[in-house]
Amino acid sequence: MVDTNRVSLTSLWEVAADGANPHPLQPGWSNPAAECCGNWTADGRYFVFQSIRNGATNIWAMREQAGLFRRAGQEPVQLTIGPLNYYAPVPSQDGKKLFVVGEQRRGEMARHDMKTQQWVGYLSGISAERLDFSQDGEWVAYQTYPEGSLWRMKVDGSERLQLTYPPLQATLPRWSPDGKQIAITANMPNQPENIYLISAEGGSPQQLIPDERREGDASWSPDGNSLAFWAAAMSLKPAGIYLLEIRTRQVSLLPGSEGLYSPRWSPDGRYIAAIPNGLWNKLLLFDLTTQKWAELATQRANWPHWSRDGKFFYFPSIRENDPAVCRIRIGDRKIEWVASLKGLRIAAASGIWIGWAPDDSPLVLRDVGTQDIYALDWQTP
Fold it and tell me: Exposure pattern of 203-213 as b/e (b: 16+ CB <10 Å)?
């Protein structure tokens, strides 16, 4: 199976057989560049490749008119268009067919039943990820898969409302404690991600920090007055965890958080948990009372989550041969196994996502899509 989730922000280059003169094949043709997996036809007259544009992957062809490194400047021509995504083109030897992988993306929301230890359908099997629930458990905000639009609805499926529209690209919704607002990570095309706030009733998202650096993955304080979030380095500002006071818009660096990301505020407001960026092998806990960091666990983890009562901290343990969901008891730091992820086909737009239901049971988006090989007839001038 082709791993179609890993192909992004890549560009095609060409180089002489002796390694000389490496340069982009079509500089500036797409922005951001998202091309890969090209092949020449047997006669060397055409180069076919895949490109992601507007969230869809299709096959394009470019004619080699003037010989390698003496290109005539002809624009690539699109060969495929929906309803599938098309990948990995390979021309036949006789030049009459083009073999491609055609993919229909579809997910099914599943929850781990703690009693039966089985993954069962959830929210009517909605094809969505990045779920977040209101504090009363009656509402859910989510990102549709594979379209990527942001919606909210009641957990019974009623009162669905789309929250964001293109060209704004939004993800990681976080309900405010009073259920009236949702913090999101969003950006316009070719712009860095920032923290936005949108009413749960819809309307125009409001950017909270007029900044040119990347920011995201917000976590509310229990009183709803502040947000903890991750921000990239820029100028004299280091990468790390920052706190934003909603009313005054004042921003401050969480002490000692340089190089950390994925903050999670505890339900009692005392702690903020975080992970070292790029390592994923530690869980750290900042005590807002003592202003000190402590190691919570030595585990490879992502998508961490506080239990509703604040007594446990959940996280997926991405072990190579036995991936699982675990939790650590805050009182004695004891790690407990919760659910196995082994053998699950998990769908995701960009990386594996693990979510959490209102009762703290794990959620995954099961991959129920299809991938097949197609032979396309084509004729070249």
Answer: eebeebbebee
Structure tokens at 67: 């010989």
Other CB atoms closer than 10 Å to residue 377's CB: what's the count? 8
Residues, the chain, total? 381
In sequence order, what DSSP letters do the residues of 102-121 get, joined into one string? EEE--EEEEEEETTTTEEEE
Nearest in space to 11 (alpha carbons), one of 335, 28, 2: 28
Confidence band, pLDDT 50/70/90 cuts, at residue 279: low
What pTM, to 2 d.p., does this model score? Answer: 0.81
Distance CA 202, CA 136 (A): 19
CA distance 68 to 50: 20
Instruction: List 49's β-bridge partners, or say none.
Output: 60
Q: Give the model's pLDDT for residue 70.
A: 45
Q: What is the mean pLDDT of residues 205-216?
A: 91
Question: Could you give the CA distance from residue 78 to residue 380 in angstroms, rounded to a whole number?
Answer: 13
Backbone phi, psi, residue 360, to 5°: 75, 10
With 0-12 / 13-18 / 19 or more C-beta atoms within 10 angstroms meaning exposed / middle / buried, residue 295 is exposed
> Per-residue pLDDT averaged across 249-258, rounded?
96
Degrees (nearest 5) of the Cα angle 244, 310, 301?
75
In angstroms, how far is CA 71 from the centroid of its own chain? Answer: 37
Indicate the pLDDT class of residue 246, thresholds 50, 70 and 90: very high
Q: Give the tokens for residue 377.
A: 């007839």
Q: Decide: residue 30, CB within 10 A, 0-12 exposed, 13-18 middle, 19+ buried.
A: middle
Give the helix ranges, DSSP H, for the chain: none
SS percent in the chain: helix, strand, coil, step 5: 0, 45, 50
Closest-CA residue to 368 (of 12, 29, 20, 128):
128
The CA distance from 64 to 70, in Å, is 9
Q: Say if CB 108 and CB 124 are below 8 A apart.
A: no
pLDDT, tens digit, for every residue of 356-379?
999 999 999 999 988 899 999 988
H/E segment holding residue 229 = strand 226-231
